[in-house]
Amino acid sequence: MPLNQVLTLIQQNTRILTNIELMYSRKDPLGRDICVYLGNDGIRLIFHPITQLLRLIEVDNLSQIVLKYKEKIFSEPGAEVSMDKVDEFFGSTHPGAYDDKQKICVKSWRGLSFCFPTAESANVEVTPGFGPLRSLKFDSATQPRLTKMSIFKGTAVGKNEEVVMPLAAYCGQNRTLLVSCSRKDGRITGVDVLFQTQNGRTSSRINSELELVKVMRTISFGDSVARVLSALGAPSRVFYKSEDKMSIHRGGCKETLSPQPHFFFNYFSMGLVSLFVSFYFFTLH
Questions:
Q1: Where exactly are the transmembrane stretches of this chain (predicted)?
Q2: Are the C-beta atoms of residues 197 and 212 closer than 8 Å to each other?
Q3: What's the maximum distance between 2 C-alpha atoms anywhere in the chain?
Q4: Segments in the chain below pLDDT 50
């Protein structure tokens, strides 16, 4: 799921979803992950900095959430899941990996991992295994309790497997793949936008999902509103600006000195904003 859809869902459910934090790096925005933290629920949504697709979900406050597996509750406030219960629900395929420094045992399955700290459990015995794998021996009264659950794509949290946007998340929107400058005679004349979109044809008779196609469009300075709409489709939002504080850029022509409408086309899912000033077009982002 892309970041813009998550933010839209949060904005549409402000009565239910509160205490939300959006964290990103201003110094290295394309090198560090984007994080949306739902404080009241203890859920952390981590997005890839470039594609802005959800790649990791972390639950770090089990006292605020109910967890189900196959319609059965295995963790709830006041009765957080134990290591034995996790093995009972998901099956124990191999011993967990143990971190001696942090004293944490991590039990992993494909796309899912659970962290159990052992520092507070006095009667826990760690049995050596192959590589980082360890077996824990404990009694029922002191067995470690789950403190964090991670949901991801692939075999391990640390492995950066490519996350692909599912067809169900497109919802008729365009998904930008590449934006580059369009030049003529050594001068920038606009932008070339390569994006994916659904073409209206079903990919198969079974799932009835629409096919994805790659489209290249060129948006040039001076393009009309109709030209931009024809190339990129309808924007996510339209913003209007009545006052022009950048009047120094309007020159001294009679046509530009008269009041002209200013409005923005915000293609939120594509990361593009188009500014129209009467008959002029300009791309801000």
A1: 263-282
A2: yes
A3: 87
A4: 248-250, 254-257, 279
For residue range 96-122, list pLDDT tens digits in order.
777 777 777 788 888 888 888 776 655
As a whole number of angstroms, the distance between CA 235 and CA 225 comes to 11
C-alpha–C-alpha distance, residues 192 and 189, integer Å: 10
Which distant-in-sequence residues (6+ apart) come within 8 Å of 168 by Cβ?
A: 209
Q: How far apart are CA 285 and CA 283, in angstroms?
A: 6
Tell me the one-letter amino acid at 247: S
Q: What SS3 class is residue 186?
A: coil
Q: Look at the block and give the residue holding tokens 């009679």.
A: 254
Would you say 148 and 114 are in contact if contact means Cβ atoms under 8 Å apart?
yes
How far, CA to CA in Å, does 262 sit from each of 107, 230, 278?
Answer: 56, 20, 7
**Phi, psi values for residue 91, rounded to 5°:** 85, 140
Residue for token digits 């593009």?
272
Is 62 in a helix, a strand, or coil? helix
Q: Where are the beta strands (DSSP E) in 203-255?
A: 210-220, 237-241
CA separation for the pair 166, 111 (Å, rounded): 16
Percent over 90 (pLDDT), the chain:
7
Asked if 228 and 250 count as a contact pair (C-beta separation under 8 A), the reply is no
**Under 8 Å CB-to-CB from 14, ≥6 apart: which residues?**
none
